[in-house]
Amino acid sequence: MSSAFPAMKILQPLSTTRSPEKPLFDLLKSPSSFLGSASKLRFNAQKPSPSSSYSSSCHRPSTIVAVSDVVKEKKTLKSNSSLSNLLITKEEGLELYEDMVLGRAFEDMCAQMYYRGKMFGFVHLYNGQEAVSTGFIKLLKQEDYVCSTYRDHVHALSKGVPARAVMSELFGKTTGCCRGQGGSMHMFSKEHNLLGGFAFIGEGIPVATGAAFTSKYRREVLKEAGCDSVTLAFFGDGTCNNGQFFECLNMAALWKLPIVFVVENNLWAIGMSHLRATSDPEIWKKGPAFGMPGVHVDGMDVLKVREVAKEAIARARRGEGPTLVECETYRFRGHSLADPDELRDPAEKARYSARDPITALKKYMIENNLVNEAELKAIERRIDEVIEDAVEFGDKSPLPSRSQLLENVFADPKGFGIGPDGKYRCEDPKFTEGTAHV
Amino acid sequence: MAAILKGIVATSVLSSSSDFVPKGVQLPSLKSLPVSERKGGFLVDGSDAKVVPVSNARARSAGRLVAANAVAAEKSAASTASKTGGHELLLFEALREGLEEEMDRDPRVCVMGEDVGHYGGSYKVTKGLAKKYGDLRVLDTPIAENSFTGMAVGAAMTGLRPIVEGMNMGFLLLAFNQISNNCGMLHYTSGGQFKIPIVIRGPGGVGRQLGAEHSQRLESYFQSIPGIQMVACSTPYNAKGLMKAAIRSENPVILFEHVLLYNLKERIPDEEYVLSLEEAEMVRPGEHVTILTYSRMRYHVMQAAKTLVNKGYDPEVIDIRSLKPFDLYTIGNSVKKTHRVLIVEECMRTGGIGASLTAAINENFHDYLDAPVVCLSSQDVPTPYAGTLEEWTVVQPAQIVTAVEQLCR
Lengths: 438, 409
Fold this sequence. Notes:
heterodimer, A: 2 domains, five-stranded parallel β-sheet, B: Rossmann fold
C-alpha cells in the first residue's frame, strides 16, 4: 500500500468559533466582509514524501496576506519600499492584469451579443471570478490540462484559446474552437489541452481525474520521465454535493494523481444558496476527509489565489498527489443570461462589487509603483481591440454547412455501419454531403 | 477438431441439449470451414405442399460472410484452423487471450474495473494480467462506476486506450451519465478534436436465478446513444476477435458478454485474427426463414433449428453480432432470399434491439417480405428469482419452433 501521507496542515482562516445559535455564514446580518478576505492565511507546504521521485527543496511557509492589508501597510512606505517584498514582478502583474481584463471584457461582450441575437441557448458568464481563472491557469504549462464546467469561456481564454475561436464558437460558426458543434458550454481545445466544457455539473471531474491518471501512467508505465503534466478541475459549490466529486477525491488521493480540485464557491447554484444545500458549507474541510490537504483562499484576490495555486500545482508536479482548493468568489451577473437574478441580496452584490479583483490588482500595482495608469490603459485598449476583432471574425465566419452534420460523430466513421448495398455508409457520397441515410 | 459437416441437413446444426452449454462441452465449429456455396434444391411434395429441402453433399458455409465491398481486412485464419489445429479454450479465456495480445501489442491499453486486478476479474477474464502488467495497467477501482468510467473517458481523451469492465453490465447503469454524455458525445462536441477509444465490457443477460438487477440487458438502453458502437459476442472465436477489434477501434465500443456463455469451449486458430465490428455472422445458411439473433439466444435458436430441421424446415440463422450499427448487407441478403424474418432476442420487448431491427428491416426490405417480421423477446418483466418464472421470462426453443412454423405456413 502507498506510504502514509504527511500530516495535513489544515488552514483555519476563521478565528470565530461556531455555535449552534450563530450560523457560520450569516452574510445578510454581518457587515463584515466575506470570510477569509481579511485574515492572514498561512499555507504550510508539505514536506516531500520519501517516495517522491522528484528532488525538492524544503519549503518555507509563506504568508499570504490580503491585498487590502498590503495596501494599508504599503501606504506608509514611500521610496524605500523594495520591489522584492512584493508578490509579483511587473511583468507578472501585467500578465495577470491583461488576462483578467480579457476575461471581463469578453464576458461583457458576450452579454451584448446575446441580447443582440448573435448567440443563443445557455450562456454562463464569469464576471467577478476572474481571479480564480487567472490565478491558477497562468501558472500552467501548455501540456497541463484544464477541465471546466459550463462557465468555461474565461478558462478557455486563460489557457490560451484565442478569443476569436471562442467567440466564433459562441456564434455557432465553423471557425469556432469546436467547429460550432459545442457551443458555450462545451469549449474544447486539443492544442491548449482544454478538456471541456461540460453541461452537467460534476461530469467533468472524472474526466479531469482521467487526464491526471494518464499523466501518472505515462510516467510510471510508459516510462516517460519528463511527463509531469498537472490537471486542474474547476467546478462550483453546487457540484460539491454531487457524488462524482467525492468519488474522484477518493480516487485521486488513493492513487496520488497529479490534480488540483479547484472549487469556485460563489455561494449560489442558480437560485440555491450554498448554505441551504450543504450540511457543512466549508468545502475545504472535505479534502482531509479523503486524505488530501484542503485549502481555503480568498478568490477575489488574484495574488492570494496565485500563491496557493503555486504550491498546489507544485505539489502535484512533485508526485505528492491532489489538493482541494476552495476559492471564495462571487459572480457579478446571474447564473446565466437567462437568469433574472432576483434572489440574491443587492447588499451582498454590492459588497462583492467593492472587491472586484481587477480593481484590487490595479490598486496594488499602482500603489506599489509596479506600473502606471498609462500602461494599464494601454492594456485595456488593446483588449478592446482583441474583443472587437473577435466579434468581427465571428460575424464574418461561415455557418457550418450540411456536410458537417455527420462528420465527427465517430472518430472512425465505419461506426455508421454497412448499408444494404454492402458498402459502408460512410463510403456513400451523400455522407460527406451530410444527407446520407445512416 | 472441427467437424466437417456434409450432406444431410438434419445433422448439421450446433447441438446443445439444454439452455446453455455446460462446461466442457465442445461445440463443433462451423466457422473453421472454408466459405463455400451451398447448392441445393427443393422438393415440393404436392400433396401437402410441404417443402423438403434437399442438399447435395457440400460443406456448409459458416462463420465469416463474404461481403463483397464492405469487409474490413480480416485475416483468414479461421479457414486454416482445421488444418493447423488451433487450440481449445473457454470463452472467458478467449477474451483474456484477446485482451492480453492487445496489451502486449500496445502499452497504452489498460484495464479498469472492480476486482479486475488482484482478484482476476469476477469472471476471470483478467486473471493473471495484474501480475504481468502491474497494478496501474490493470487497475482495481473503488466501487464508483460513474467516476471510473468518466476517468477512463478522460484517460482516453489524453492518449490511453482503456478498457472498462462493469462487473455486471447492470452496474453500468450507474455510469450512464458518462457513457451517454461523454463517451458518446465528446468527439462530436469537441469538433473532432478528442477521440475516445474506449472499450466498455461486461457480462449481462439473464443468468441462473440471479434476480432482477443482475439479469439486465442494457443493450436496449444504450442503443440510442449517438457516437458509440455495440457488439455482442457469443462464441470463443468471435469473443476474441471482437475484443481485439474493439480495442483497436478508435470509436467507443460497448462489448456485451453473457453470464452463461463464459464456459463455452471451442477450438480457435493459433494465428492472430481480428473480426469486423460491423459485420454479422452467418451461423447456418438456409432457405425458408431468416432467424436473427445474438448472444445467448443463438444457442436457443440452434437448438430449435435442430427440431425444425427434423420437421423439414431449413432456417437460416444469423448472429447479428453488431447491435449498433446493424449489418444491413448480410441481413438484407438473407431477407431477399427467404422473405421471412424471425428475430429472437433476450432483450425486453419494449424498445429492445429487436424493435429497432424490426423497424430497420421494414424500412429497408419491405418489398421482400412475404410476412410481417416476427420478434420474440423476453417479457417486459423484471426477471424473477424463481426458476420456473425465470424460464418463462426468456424465449425458449419451443417458442422459436412454433414461431417458425407459423411464419412458414
